[in-house]
Each structure stands twice: as structure tokens, then as C-alpha cells.
């Protein structure tokens, strides 16, 4: 019998399918040290020094622990400028597990997004997709296009229990096509899983239907396959008819509904750096290789060392193991269920790569203009040294045409789990801190910008607490003003 999150309802405990061979010490800090560190970082967890962080749940990107098999592969790096044998291994693994014909290696995911956007998007084009991702949309905009969200409405409601909140709303998709015309749609951008919605999966049935809808009208489909393996696990455990299909076969079928993919290898591929663009079309692949040579490196390394490509080839093989995914996503569920049991509002169902705390419901005394998710991430760091990330109004940024802040319906703090890095005990410590904070949530202040960068502002923005010196006060303060004019009083 399957649990709703895919774990079998067995009375026995389960454990990670590996043992630890090397350890990296982490530092415990005092509250006073953390208050200083977060102030110096402008209340932006991206600007903290990692030495000042106790449990780092900022991202699952490039933070994976590699296996002994991958490290062994690192010593077999063929560091030739051209024609490295490790590239052949990588290309073989991609064709075997993802099924695409051509591989263009890139330094990381956004390198692949850059090349795909430059080659396919013309000025004024619209790119429909199941929710934006920050770097993906940025490259689409830089190429002259604009992103149109066609994800189902449930994705914007943290409490909705829909099992596939990453699904594409086919009516919304057809409406965009009717509105702007097929010639102005370079491709459908299909994410699996959907990061900004909380690591929510897309179902196989939906991928198949969206792909048919597009292909019938000669619109290509490109998959953001960054966490497609995790998506495959959700299909296996939630979608009827896939219980007995292997992760590898599910992944291959998912990819078969697209004409290629962009990939940040720093997630599912279990490495610390690297990515690729995979394509089926010979001519487009040829043009992509030309761009790769200009922006990334020769088309047989694309910004990666030979050893990096070897580690990725081996990581891809390891990533499709059911036991690996069961423990990886099981750990996310373990953390999420502790928070749910304590009444902490999180995105449900619990996603694939992290637990997303709903800062709107956590901090109802703050307006969205006071950046509740940014404030909560800063307060969590002060409380325990756990580092999470804002995924809300700050990440959404400004509309490039109007300059207005984009409205973000989701206002989340992402507690992202690196793969194979932390133990369940780290999850217990994290849960305790979030639950403690929830009990004293009225002591968390809102934030206002003190510096706002032009692009991808969440990475480098700086803030000040509104109406007091500390982000987290020792005693409750009286009601915070909800007016925007307060921002000016800092
Ligand atoms: N697509 C998705 C869905 C991502 O989550 C990311 C990165 C990228 C593309 C870009 O890949 O970083 O290798 O250039 N996400 C990271 C994160 C940054 O923390 O979620 P990249």
C-alpha cells in the first residue's frame, strides 16, 4: 500500500541506502553571531558566508554529495581540449536514460537556456510554460520573448492537495496559441518538476496531452529536465498504471513527449557543476554547437572539465535508482510531515526537492510589500543557523515593460534538501527551529529594500527590517503597520 507521498505504509523504519565515508564539519554559532551575520548580509540569505551557516538548505543545486563511484570517475578525467572520452560517456548516458539524440554540454543549466533561447525566440514571441523559473524566464526575455504562465490554477494555492500541481492547463495553453498565433510561439516550456510551485510534479497523461496539442500545431516542446527524475518518482508512486514501471522507463517516456531538454546537472544528475542542452533535431543541434563554441566552450566540453562530465555520466546512472529516490524524497517528506503535524503552513502535497513554507499564512501580520518570505528566511537563520531561500515577491522581480513589481501569488520560504548530504537528525533540528519560530511568529519584522539590483534581484538584494533594529525580537511588538508608507520611515 502506498502512502500519499509515495512511501509504503510499513511499520518498519527505513534508512538511507548508503553509508558515510567522509565527513565535513559544520559550525555551530551563537544567536549574537548570527544576528551580526544576517545584518551584514542585508537580510538576504544568499549573501551569508557559508561558514556562518549550520544547516544549509538554501538550494539543492550543486550541493549534492557524490558517491565513491563518481569520485573514482573524477580520477579518470580525460582533460583533452577536444574529443574527451568523458564526453562520449556523458552523451551515451543521456541518450540511454533521457533518450535524446544530440548532447550539447554547458557549464550549467542557464548556459543551455541561453543557447536554446537565442536560437528559437524572436522579438515579440510568447513562450507558454508551467510556471516560470527565474533564469529560464530571464533568458527568454533577453532573447526578446515573454513568458506566459499556463499552469493549472491549483499550483497557486499552497493548500490544494492536487497530486500533479505541475500540470499544464490545456485550455490556457490553447488560448495563448489562439491569441498570439502559432508563428509567435517558438516552443512550449515544460518543467518537470515545477520548482517555483514547490517541487510539484506534472503527470504523464498531462505531458502526453500537452505535447500532442503542440505537435499537432507544429509547436516544439522543450522540457526543463532539471528534476525530471524526481518527477518520474512521483509518476511511479501517484499515477495509475505506472506502479510497476521502472524509473528509467518512466523518464524515457516523459522525455519522448519533447523535442529536447535543458538541464541543470547540478540537481538530479548528482554532481556539483555542469549541464546540457539535448536535442533531437540535427540542424538545430548543429546551430547549438556553434553557439556553444562561442559562449560555453568547445562542443565536446561546454565549460565542464573531463572529470566533471565523467561524474555526471555516472551520476545519471545512479539517479534513476528507485532506492535513491525513495530515500531522497522520503527525507523531504520526513521534514514536511513534522511541520504539518505542528500546524505550520506549508505547500501541500510535499514536493520533491524541498519543503516550501507558506510565509503568507505564517506571517499574516505582514503585507506582501514587506516581503514576508524574505523576512522569515532571515528570522530562521537568526533562530538556528538554518539557511533557506525566499521564493516569492522578491524572486518574482519587476515586469521589464512596466517596471512594476510582479504580483506573486506564492510567497514561500524554500527549505531545499541537498541530495545525500544531511541526516534525519538535521531534519529534526530544522523542524524544531521552524516550529519554535511559528510559536513566536508575531516577533518577526517585515523588510524593505536598501539595494535592489536590476536583474534577478533576489540573488544580491539588500534589506533593512521595518520599524526596529532586529528581524526577530525577543519580546512581541505591538501590531506592525501594514501601510507601505511605513517603508519610507526606516
Ligand atoms: N531550471 C530549473 C527548474 C532550476 O531549478 C534551475 C536552477 C535552473 C533551471 C538553472 O540551472 O542553476 O544550473 O543554471 N535552480 C537553482 C535553484 C538555482 O536553487 O533552484 P543552473
Molecular structure report:
With 490 residues, the chain is of the alpha/beta class. It folds into 2 domains: 8-60 and 322-487, Aspartate Aminotransferase, domain 1, CATH 3.90.1150.10; 69-319, 3-Layer(aba) Sandwich (Aspartate Aminotransferase, domain 2). The chain contains 16 helices and 14 strands. The chain has helices spanning 31-40, 68-74, 85-97, 109-120, 134-142, 170-180, 204-216, 228-238, 247-256, 282-295, 306-319, 322-341, 359-362, 372-384, 393-396, 424-439, and strands spanning 55-56, 102-106, 126-129, 146-149, 188-191, 221-224, 260-264, 275-279, 354-358, 386-387, 389-391, 412-416, 447-451, 462-465. A 5-stranded mixed sheet has the order 2-8-7-6-5, with helices on both faces. A 3-stranded antiparallel sheet has the order 9-12-11. Strands 1-10 form a two-stranded parallel ribbon. Helix 1 (31-40) packs antiparallel against helix 14 (372-384), helix 4 packs parallel to helix 5 (134-142) and helix 12 (322-341) runs parallel beside helix 16 (424-439). The longest helix has 20 residues, at 322-341. The structure holds ligand F0G. Residues 59, 61, 108-110, 133, 135-136, 191, 195, 224, 226, 264, 266, 275 line the site of ligand F0G.
Amino acid at each position: 500500500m502506498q502512502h500519499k507521498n509515495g512511501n509504503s505504509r510499513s511499520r518498519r523504519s527505513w534508512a538511507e541506502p548508503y553509508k558515510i565515508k567522509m565527513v565535513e564539519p559544520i559550525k555551530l554559532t551563537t544567536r549574537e553571531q548570527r544576528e551580526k551575520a544576517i545584518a551584514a548580509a542585508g537580510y538576504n540569505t544568499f549573501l551569508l558566508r557559508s561558514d556562518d551557516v549550520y544547516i544549509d538548505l538554501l538550494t539543492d543545486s550543486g550541493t549534492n554529495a557524490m558517491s565513491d563511484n563518481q569520485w573514482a570517475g573524477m580520477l579518470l578525467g580525460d582533460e583533452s581540449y577536444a574529443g574527451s572520452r568523458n564526453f562520449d560517456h556523458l552523451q551515451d548516458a543521456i541518450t540511454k536514460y533521457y533518450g535524446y539524440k544530440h548532447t550539447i554540454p554547458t557549464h550549467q543549466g542557464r548556459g543551455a537556456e541561453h543557447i536554446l533561447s537565442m536560437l528559437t525566440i524572436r522579438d515579440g514571441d510568447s513562450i507558454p510554460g508551467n510556471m516560470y523559473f527565474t533564469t529560464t524566464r530571464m533568458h527568454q526575455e533577453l532573447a526578446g520573448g515573454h513568458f506566459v504562465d499556463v499552469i493549472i490554477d491549483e499550483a497557486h494555492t499552497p493548500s490544494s492537495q492536487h497530486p500533479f500541481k505541475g500540470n499544464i492547463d490545456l485550455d490556457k495553453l490553447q488560448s495563448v496559441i489562439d491569441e498570439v498565433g502559432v508563428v509567435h510561439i517558438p516552443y512550449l516550456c515544460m518543467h518537470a518538476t515545477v520548482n517555483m510551485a514547490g517541487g510539484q510534479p506534472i503527470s504523464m497523461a498531462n505531458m502526453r496531452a500537452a505535447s500532442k496539442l503542440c505537435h499537432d500545431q507544429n509547436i516544439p516542446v522543450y522540457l526543463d529536465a532539471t528534476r525530471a527524475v524526481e518527477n518520474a518518482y512521483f509518476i511511479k508512486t501517484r499515477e495509475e498504471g505506472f506502479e510497476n514501471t521502472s524509473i528509467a522507463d518512466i523518464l524515457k517516456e516523459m522525455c519522448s513527449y519533447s523535442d529536447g531538454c535543458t538541464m541543470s546537472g547540478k540537481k538530479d544528475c548528482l554532481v556539483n557543476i555542469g549541464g546540457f542542452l539535448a536535442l533531437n533535431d540535427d540542424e538545430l543541434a548543429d546551430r547549438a554547437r556553434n553557439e556553444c563554441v562561442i559562449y560555453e566552450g568547445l562542443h565536446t566540453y561546454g565549460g565542464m572539465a573531463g572529470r566533471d562530465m565523467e561524474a555526471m555520466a555516472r551520476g545519471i546512472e545512479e539517479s534513476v535508482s528507485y532506492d535513491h529516490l525513495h530515500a531522497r524524497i522520503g527525507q523531504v517528506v520526513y521534514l514536511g510531515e513534522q511541520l504539518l503535524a505542528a500546524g505550520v503552513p506549508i505547500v501541500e502535497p510535499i514536493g520533491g526537492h524541498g519543503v516550501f513554507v507558506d510565509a503568507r499564512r505564517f506571517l499574516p501580520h505582514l503585507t506582501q510589500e514587506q516581503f514576508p518570505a524574505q523576512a522569515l528566511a532571515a528570522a530562521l537563520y537568526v533562530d538556528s543557523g538554518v539557511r533557506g531561500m525566499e521564493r516569492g515577491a522578491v524572486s518574482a522581480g519587476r515586469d521589464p515593460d512596466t517596471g512594476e513589481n510582479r504580483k506573486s501569488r506564492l510567497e514561500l520560504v524554500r527549505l531545499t534538501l541537498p541530495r545525500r548530504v544531511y541526516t534525519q537528525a538535521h531534519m529534526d533540528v530544522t523542524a524544531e527551529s521552524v516550529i519554535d519560530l511559528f510559536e513566536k511568529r508575531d516577533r518577526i519584522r517585515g523588510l524593505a529594500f536598501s539595494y535592489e539590483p536590476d536583474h534577478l534581484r533576489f540573488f544580491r538584494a539588500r534589506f533593512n527590517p521595518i520599524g526596529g533594529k532586529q528581524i526577530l525580537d525577543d519580546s512581541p511588538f505591538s501590531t506592525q503597520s501594514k501601510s507601505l508608507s511605513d517603508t519610507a520611515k526606516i
